[in-house]
Design goal:
Layout (H helix, E strand, L loop, with lengths): L1 H23 L13 H15 L9 E4 L19 E5 L5 E5 L5 H13 L3 H10 L2 H21 L6 H11 L1 H20 L6 H32 L7
Parallel strand pairs: 1-3
Antiparallel strand pairs: 2-3
Helix pairs in contact: 1-8, 2-3, 2-7, 3-7, 4-7, 5-6, 5-8, 6-8, 7-8
Length: 236
């Protein structure tokens, strides 16, 4: 069962990645493109920080607009979407957002949501945990090892839920960070007077799945391996 779950999650992951690349890496403007919402969303971001930042002032955000080249292949996983929807810290110390001006405004709102999260105690802690290389390596290893060990010591093969929960917990900093960014991004859109449509919410959900599915795939595989090692406890 674990192997089936892992395979299904991996297959869905591939489809989700193609969908995300098709949207984030688009070469023609979306119905509501980021390029048309730069000022309104930035105003929505500043208002969001004022609402949740406990007196913190909104950090100035540097914006880099990048359009994918003609040879950007949505079916090639080597084509990263980072230049077209991501956030980092510039040499100035200010947050910087890379965005494709053709992409839906929801993706820009999501990246601004990441920046807004950093203005809160919880958001800053989660972000630091996610960006800690040593912690990331340890959590990545535990995503496979912990579910495998749990399955091995738990008799029988009905332990898939435990394995998936443990694998997902190992990805918790990333999942929480992405969840907060989406929550704040939707609030930013509301503040900007452009409430997210159902389709835009679906696009953000597709982005979240791209982080959740790998945990489920690894958890399912760890469960399968662990169940090859365990011994059923005899009953009288």
């Amino acid at each position: 069962m674990g192997l089936i779950t892992s395979g299904a999650a991996t297959a869905l992951q591939g489809l989700t990645d193609v969908f995300n690349r098709s949207q984030i890496g688009r070469r023609t403007p979306a119905t509501r493109p980021a390029s048309a919402a730069l000022d309104s969303l930035y105003g929505g971001y500043e208002k969001r920080v004022n609402d949740i930042g406990s007196g913190r002032k909104p950090m100035p955000v540097e914006l880099s607009q990048n359009t994918p080249p003609e040879n950007f292949n949505i079916f090639d996983p080597r084509n990263s979407t980072d230049p077209y929807a991501s956030n980092a810290t510039a040499s100035s110390g200010n947050p910087v957002i890379d965005i494709n001006p053709n992409a839906d405004e929801a993706y820009l709102a999501h990246e601004l949501g990441h920046v807004a999260s950093k203005h809160t105690d919880v958001g800053a802690i989660v972000r630091n945990l996610r960006n800690n290389p040593k912690l990331a390596a340890a959590l990545g290893a535990s995503m496979f090892a912990v579910p495998a060990v749990a399955s091995a010591i738990e008799a029988g093969d009905n332990d898939l839920d435990t394995s998936l929960a443990l694998a997902t917990a190992a990805s918790l900093p990333t999942l929480v960070d992405e969840g907060l960014a989406t929550k704040n991004g939707l609030a930013i859109m509301n503040n900007a007077g452009t409430r997210a449509t159902l389709g835009q919410r679906g696009k953000l959900a597709g982005g979240y799945l791209s982080y959740l599915l790998p945990a489920l795939a690894v958890g399912g595989l760890g469960n399968f391996v662990g169940n090859q090692l365990d011994q059923d406890i005899p009953t009288s």
